[in-house]
Prior knowledge:
Helix content is 16%, strand content 42%. By secondary structure, it is an alpha+beta fold. It has a single domain, classed as Immunoglobulins (Immunoglobulin-like). The strands form 3 sheets. The protein has a 4-stranded antiparallel sheet. The chain has a 4-stranded antiparallel sheet with strand order 5-3-8-9, with no helix packed on it. Strand 8 (114-118) and strand 9 (126-129) form a beta hairpin. The radius of gyration is 19 Å and the shape is elongated. It starts with a helix and ends with a helix. The relative contact order is 0.21.
Amino acid sequence: MWKSYLLLFFGVFALAHCETGEETGPKLLVSKQILNKYLVETKDIEIKYTIFNIGSSAAVGVTLTDNTFHPDVFDVAGGYLFAEFARVPPQSNVSHVVVVRPKSFGYFNFTSAEVQYKSSDESSAVSFFIMFYYEIICFKNVCCPHMAASKII
Length: 153
């Protein structure tokens, strides 16, 4: 989880120090977090998306799409892999949570999700991807023999 915050910090730092001229329009930072401590076959995986608008105006028609979780490999247990927000006001954020369940154990790559938005109702869509890469191992079962031994003694 700290890696997501570190990525977010560097994104804010880069935007703050690379900007020349006046700041106008929306500027979105996007975070994708896996909230689980352990990833286990047939157990729910919670994914939280947070969109921060650090710009000076509202982002309009914001859409978030995540095609990472293929239906052959994951079931959607709660929420949707697509979210729409009419507006994200300046200096605020919105969140979206989805719960997926792996159908089998193995190696999976969680890659980026796509976010599209407009700077005003008349402008064309601007698209960018969440900078996120995560390789996970979904275990068949979780066993902690050291914890069991400490409880027996």
